What does this fold into?
Amino acid sequence: MTPPADDKASLTYEQSGVSIDAGDDFAKRIRAHMRRTHGPRVISNPGGFAGLLRLDYNESLFRRNFKDPVLVACTDGVGTKVKLGADLKRWRGLGQDLVAMNVNDLVVEGAEPLLFLDYIATGKLDPVALEEIVAGICDACSRCGAALLGGETAEMPSVYAEGDLDLAGFAVGVVELGRAMDAARVEPGDVILGLASDGVHANGFSLVRRILEHARLDPTKAYPELQTEGEPERDLGDVLLAPTRLYAAPVARVLRRYTVKRVVTGMAHITGGGLADNLSRTLPGNVDATIDTTAWTPPPIFEFLQRHGNVEPDEMRRVFNMGIGFCLVVRPAFAASIARRLERFGERVSTLGTIETGSGDVVLR
It folds into this structure.
């Protein structure tokens, strides 16, 4: 390599805005968080370039083995919710958002989560903020049984301004082939159960932020109409940044309960597109899902956003989850027992409607 000329300064990577030392230090800080997500499937691989995980158990040590395993994979991000989190310097919930947006999609296919990977891109590495995000990721992974096997943190000052960041996640799960979800099994008479959301979750934040700007709303202010009696006061920012609810663990526990009878015939994670668009994805072409929109009460944040943004009701239903974050389509004879079981696992369950003969549509009444 040719040395720099004497009359020219020697350039470094750090002068271009990227600190290798800061990246190495951050990697050391998060190892303890990662290790608490590791179960017996994870194979130790210090210094490795990738994580290792056993797909199946050793039958002499563990109870459960797969006969015909199918891997299920998905990827998703947190979208522009990260911008509001960055503006308010509230980071930890974004980690749960990232995990939930992925593992909730996995369980729709009947899969149990196995592993998770994260990708964090930023203009300038902020170790405190990023450690908070990774701690939130690890909290969520531990709750849903996924191992955080690794990830990537990219410092790109020429792409992101200082203070900006983006989050992406990648999840892999496994399902026994004979128990994978199949839309063809949904039939007239099946009952639709809805699991309550914890608020806006992680979709529609471009509209949320536009409403905040349009109505000159202060995210650090506690608005009376958003408070819940008997609970601590929360400002608008905390209400909006409430993390996406993790449905994967309770739903997987229900699926494991019914090992012989396949009483859950379809599922949907309610994200962008709202209830109608997402539930329609689980329907065959010969049935409709008829939903009673009075069966649940949306959290106050949705009426608040609609009023301050003068948003049409149809637009609200198309953009936001409106208080239902996950749906299960179940055989009618088992609907009550499944609802009770989910409630014991901490979910708030509403009976939304039924499946009827139709053409693959969701009908809101």
Q: What stands out?
A: The first helix runs from residue 20 to 35. The CA atoms of residues 197 and 325 lie 4 Å apart.
